[in-house]
Amino acid sequence: MPLLAISGLGAESSQLHEQGLYWLACDAAEDASLLCRQVIEGMPEDARAALIADAQAMRDVLGALDAAQGPAELALFETTPQSIRYLLQDLPRLAPRKRVLVLLVSADAWAGDAAEQWCNALRPALLAEAALLLVISGGQGTALVECLRTYNQHLDGLAQVYRGKGGVRYLQHFWSNPLGKTATRDMELVRLAGGFAVAAMAPVPIDAGGDELLCLAQRPVLEGAPAFSEHWQVHESIEGLSASASRAVSATVIFAMDGGQRLDNLARQLHRLRQLRGNALKLVVREMAPTLRYQDEQLLLACGATLIVPFGASLSRFLTMVESIQGYVWRRHLPGDFDALLARLRPQAICGLVAPRAFAEAVQSMWQGLRNGEIVHQLLVMRPAPGLTPLQACSRTVFRRDGDIACVVGDVLFLFLFACRSEGVEQALDHIFQLSWKELFVSQELLVDIDSLTSPAFLDSSLPQQPRPDPAAQVPAQAWPTLAPRKVALAKRGGA
């Protein structure tokens, strides 16, 4: 019986039909390779299996494959992302009869409705051959997954491995096998030596502590209003609030975040309370001034915050949001080492144009937070317009944030944006490039992993010469004469 071989997943979500079409979509290419290797090693010895992948992906899988595990027969078929669309025509060459086919491919091999047509045509052919195909796609294919969710009549199962909620998660959208059909499940994964496993779920406390209705709050969050009821306890300082919260079990604890509050201190308080009192405690942060950036919010959430109320929310809206989390149990993974967590979610003290070696080392270090699902960064490759070198395209750039760095490798520019969502890339580029970056560059590619940073080109430690701005593009300074008062005589018109 074919299996996904993810320990702790359960037979109803890990078994597969002996024929049909399943799809596992992974946000990260490295997760896809690891999962592919894990699936192959988990196959029984008497299985007839085949791996279909491009040359590099095949090397990644086979290089760490345990020769003592998996099927006795594993056929290898090298392909390219472009030729995957013609798999139906190539199916007879794979001798698919009663064979388990594992396809490892990049998510960008499909565009638009191509995936629907591909699945619709391929699944009947697989059933006719009594063959099983498991597609494992790697890369940020959010749009692809959204499309696949509507194709349940063309797929026997769809699941997703993504980075979020402070870790690596397994999201099963739907799954069918000889045991029946199962619907949506969302589970945390841990990465072990042999691959992924489902993390042990902390039991939900049966005794809620009897303080579910209690609200402990710093005074500023009430905007000058008195305590709303006998269930509200108001504290003047964060220390007094934390002391009361350290005796609570499932109460709501509300902190005020303003310009005078140290973020690291608040994050440490949240982390300590979450470690000390468990997951039933509801920790709320109300932003009293516009101080929190994306990376700050992610730090608070990773440290145990249940809810962050943004600046500008009215008092009534704030109370509604607090009411909405009653009965909620925190489900994220809490890192044990606060200082290590803080280091992952803080940029290095480096910005601007740097040497390729410094760029690669800094990105590899800061990438750890994304790998843990705690924060999102963006890594781009930008190709200048004809006639421009990457250095010339960077002649009018301003890097304002630590962690935003760039380097030149060959004829392209590598750009890393720390703590930047995908929808914020264009705005970030507008801030960095004083001229229109859409005219300076003919293409930009978003990388989903940092494998390219291990190439020999990134061993270069020479600092790039800072480009000088084009003198023709600058307005020459003008010497203005010193202003001095002078008398003005007004003539009288008309009259004597």
Helical percentage: 25-40%
CATH topology assignment of the largest domain: Rossmann fold
* Average pLDDT metric: 89
- Shape annotation: globular
Q: Provide a count of the helices.
A: 16
Biggest sheet architecture = 10 strands, mixed
Protein architecture, described:
With 496 residues, the chain is α/β, with parallel strands linked by helices. The chain has three domains: 188 residues, Rossmann fold; 126 residues, 3-Layer(aba) Sandwich (Rossmann fold); 123 residues, 2-Layer Sandwich (Alpha-Beta Plaits), CATH 3.30.70. Helices cover 27% and strands 24% of the residues. It is built from 16 helices and 20 strands. Strands 1, 2, 3, 4, 5, 6, 7, 8, 9 and 10 form a ten-stranded mixed sheet that branches. Strands 12-11-13-14-15 form a five-stranded parallel sheet, with helices on both faces. Strands 16-18-19-17-20 form a five-stranded mixed sheet. α9 links the parallel β14 and β15. α2 packs across α3 and α8 packs parallel to α9. It starts with 10 loop residues before the first helix and ends in a 49-residue tail after the last strand. About 1% of the residues have low confidence.
